[in-house]
Design goal:
6-stranded mixed beta sheet, Rossmann fold, 2 domains, alpha/beta
């Protein structure tokens, strides 16, 4: 699959923080419309890869292509319209003194997009929130409601790609399923491409087609999500991760 056919293409990517290399030799392709996961233990470098793709981890070398365009070493406004990120902590990623209306309107203002009222109300409806949430502040909502707002914000620019960094790990188990169902529905309705970072293999089984297993800053294996049902991993680390998650 060529880099221009892919939604996301990484070839031999290294990422460093303050000159210390934390991710090494990362190579994978995500097809347009595919849902792909980066899995592994905490500290394996998964979130760092996401940050490099969207320009938040500037010290990278190698090749990154996003929707056929070369990756940037800083946030790129034109790519932001096509690729958005949802972070782990919905409380930390929403400004505490901005209403939901202000949070959802901001991307439209930055990119000069009109029809704000209709777009904000539609976005709330798309993520299953009543219009009465429009003028609430983050502290007036539950964790699940805040994450719905964060997803709505990411959808405001009608992106093609969503980068999802542990999008349910800060939520109660009962709420996690609601958010995962929402993400699955949105992908189906909009033909979105997902790149999901998680340490939770059942989430991969529910939401993803394929996964790259990461350990100590490297990809050790790329496997189909069917491996989570039949245990057909080949690398010892992947097999151990699978066994620890309740697999064979």
């Amino acid at each position: 699959m060529g880099r221009y056919m892919s939604a996301i293409s990484l070839n031999n990517v290294d990422v460093a923080y303050d000159g210390v290399r934390v991710v090494e030799g990362i190579t994978f392709n995500v097809a347009r419309g595919e849902s792909f996961a980066l899995v592994g233990e905490s500290g394996s470098g998964k979130s760092t890869v996401l940050k490099a793709i969207c320009g938040l981890a500037p010290e990278w070398t190698g090749e990154i292509f996003l929707l056929g365009e070369p990756g940037s070493h800083r946030p790129n406004l034109s790519l932001a319209r096509r690729c958005q990120m949802v972070f782990q902590d919905p409380y930390g990623s929403l400004h505490p003194r901005k209403t939901v209306d202000a949070v959802l309107s901001e991307p439209l203002a930055i990119h000069g997009i009109g029809g704000q009222d209709e777009r904000v109300e539609q976005a709330l409806a798309d993520v299953g929130l009543d219009r009465r949430f429009r003028f609430r502040y983050p502290h007036q909502m539950s964790g699940g409601q805040r994450q719905r707002v964060a997803i709505a914000r990411a959808l405001m620019l009608e992106p093609e790609v969503m980068l999802l960094d542990e999008p349910t790990s800060a939520l109660d188990v009962s709420v996690q399923a609601e958010i995962l169902n929402l993400l699955k529905r949105l992908r189906a309705e909009r033909g979105l491409t997902y790149l999901l970072v998680t340490h939770n293999l059942p989430i991969v089984s529910f939401l993803c087609d394929r996964m790259a297993v990461m350990s100590k800053g490297r990809v050790v294996e790329i496997a189909s999500s069917t491996a989570l049902h039949d245990g057909s991993f080949t690398h010892p680390y992947s097999q151990a991760l699978y066994a620890a998650s309740g697999g064979a």
